[in-house]
Fold:
Amino acid sequence: MSQMTTDQIARMAHETMRAYAQTIGEAPMPAWEEAPDWMVTSTKAAVEFRLANPHAPASAQHDQWMAERLGQGWRYGKVKDAQAKTHPSLVSYRRLSVAERRKDRLILAVIKALAK
Structure:
């Protein structure tokens, strides 16, 4: 099998996050084909970060995601709301819930497995 592209890895990472969110009872995420541009761009940025920093800890991945969100005007909020640009995970990595940390590690594993 030839090496997967960043876009292919991002699609798989997104669909993995979507399945995980559904499994733990979070609000449903749209399928990759229906995802808003900001979500697709964010997932691709996460893949690019991981490919460039394969040994970075999950906390660094979270920091990358958080910096991206804050740079786009998002802020902490108790509820994820794309219109209001609020998200409950805009906190330090150690303040994330266990479920969120698991999601981060799951995505790292998916990217690592597909980037080989």
About this structure: Residues 6-114 form one domain.
